[in-house]
Amino acid sequence: MNNQVTATLKYALLSDTKMNLIADLVRNKGVKESLKMLEFMPKKWARTLYKLIKSATANAVENKGLSVDDLYIERIEVGKGPKIKRIRFTSRSRVSHYEKYRSYVKIVLNTK
Fold first, then answer.
1. What is the pLDDT along the chain (112 residues), one digit of tens a residue?
2. What CATH code is carried by the domain that includes residue 19?
3. Domain that holds residue 82
4. Full-prediction pTM beyond 0.70?
């Protein structure tokens, strides 16, 4: 029986390298343990990953009838999304270009 449950987040407004730093801390851990870690983490994007894990957990409980105690994070895939290109006007009628990075996050939960 396949007990894998997924949740995805598209176009998250942060770079994939920053999200990978947070995702490395909770890979291959239990759901309850990872939620406790992310809840009190001072990083800005830990809250986003916290919400995504809560969403995947809710999918597992509602759709498959699994227990939260048995779930663990099997995989977290973080990928690059499209860049948003912007300009900023500077002195002497010049223009500075900058980019805002986006990322994709996919979480796969499974039972022990």
1. 578 999 999 999 999 999 999 999 999 999 999 999 999 999 988 999 999 999 999 999 999 999 999 999 999 999 999 999 999 999 999 999 999 999 999 999 999 8
2. 3.90.470.10
3. 5-111
4. yes
- Longest Cα–Cα distance of the chain, Å, equals 66
Rounded to the nearest 5°, which phi and psi values hold at 51?
A: -65, -35
- Count: domains in the chain: 1
CB of 105 within 8 A of CB of 21? no
- Give the whole-angstrom CA distance, residue 55 versus residue 61: 10
Q: To the nearest 10°, the Cα dihedral for 61, 63, 64, 68?
A: -10
Classify the phi-psi angles of 34: left when phi > 0, otherwise alpha if psi is within -120 to 50, otherwise beta. Answer: alpha
Q: How far is CA 91 from CA 9, 86, 95, 96, in A?
A: 38, 17, 8, 10
